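Prompt: For my understanding, could you write out one protein's sequence and backbone structure tokens?
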Amino acid sequence: YSKNDFSVPFDVSENAVTYLGNAHFFIEQYTYILDIFDNQDRDLSLFKRKYPQIPGQPIIDILDKTTDSDS
């Protein structure tokens, strides 16, 4: 269970692809770490190869590109 509940709200639009990011979940002793990476170019290329029947759909990117997580 999570000591502090959290959520990342986002909208899903009809006829569009929503990119959530590449999530990695780590457990180190009693610490839980969730890292989300923006690998959109790689991930969407793989998506388009796997689902060619969904061509030309708008891409909605919920990752905030203006925030640096290291600051």
Notes: Residues 37 and 68 are 11 Å apart (CA to CA). The two ends are 28 Å apart (CA to CA). The longest strand covers residues 22-28.
